[in-house]
Amino acid sequence: MELLRVEGLNVCYGLSKVLHDVALTVGRGELVSLVGRNGVGKSTTMRGIMGLTPPRAGSILWKGEQILRRSPHRNARAGIGYVPEDRRIFSSLTVWENLDVARLPPRPGQIPWDEDRVFEFFPDLLPFKQREGGLLSGGQQQMLTIGRTLMGNPELLLLDEPSEGVAPIIVAGIEKKIRELKEAGLSIILAEQNLDFVLALSDRCYVLEKGSIVFAGTAQELRANREVQDRYLYI
Ligand SMILES: Nc1ncnc2c1ncn2[C@@H]1O[C@H](COP(=O)(O)OP(=O)(O)OP(=O)(O)O)[C@@H](O)[C@H]1O
Questions:
Q1: Is 224 helix (H, G, I), strand (E, B) or coil?
Q2: What ipTM did this prediction achieve?
Q3: Where is each ABC transporter domain found (predicted)?
C-alpha cells in the first residue's frame, strides 16, 4: 500500500527555484533513497515533505490526504519523522532529556517508543544516559537524533545523510540499525551521497541532479547502471 505520493514538487529559496517537479512514492515498509551530490536538493525535498520549507507548488499525499504546506508539527503528529542532517541535539540537555522532550502519542496499533526501548535499540547510548547531548561523539549524536525521532512514533522516517560526519566503523553500525528499523516495518526515505550505503539498504532509488529527478529505479538497476553513477554520483 502506498504511504506517500509526491508529485510536481517545486521549492524555492527566495527567488531561486531549487526543486523542479520532483515526484516520488513510498510504499508501506519500503526504503527509498534520494541520491546525488552535494547541493542537488536532497535535504530540500525532505524539508518540503516535512513542511519545514513550504513548497511553492505540487502535491504531497500522505495516506491519500493532501498535506502540502502543512506545518511540521502537524506532519510529525500524523506519523512523519524527520532526522535532520545537522542533528539539532539540545546540547545542554542530557541524552535522556533529549529523548523525553520528543515524545508524541503513538497511532493505533503501534508499539510505542519510550526511553527504555530507545536504549535497548541503541545500547551504546545507555552509558551516556545522564550525559549532556553536546558531549557525545558524532556517531552517538546520530544515534540520539534517530532515537529522538523514534520517540515521535513515526510511520515514515526521513533520514538526512545519517553517514555524514560519522567514523567509518560507526557507519556500519548505523546501517545495521536502519535495516532493523525497516525490518520492523518502518517506511524510510534516506538521503545519502554514500552509494555503497544506499545500495546496501534501499528497495528503490531516485537520483537527483540540480533539483530534478534524473533516474528512478530499483537498487539493482542503479547498481547496474554505470552511466548514471558516473554522470551524477561521482565527482
Ligand atoms: N536556506 C537556504 N537558502 C538558500 N538556498 C539554499 C538554502 N538551503 C539550501 N539552499 C540551496 O538549495 C540547493 C539544494 O540544497 P540541498 O541542501 O537541498 O541539497 P542536498 O542535496 O541536500 O545537499 P547537501 O548534501 O549539501 O545537504 C543548493 O543549491 C543550496 O545551496
A1: helix
A2: 0.92
A3: 4-235
Query: What CATH class is the domain 2-87+151-233?
Result: alpha beta
State pTM to two decimals: 0.94
Nearest residue to 149 (alpha-carbon basis) of 79, 60, 218: 79
State the pLDDT at residue 167.
83
CA of residue 38 to ligand 1 center, whole Å = 8
Residue 235 pLDDT greater than 80, yes or no = no
Measured in Å, residue 19 CA sits from the centre of ligand 1 at: 10
Q: Is 41 in the pocket of ligand 1 (CB under 6 A)?
A: yes
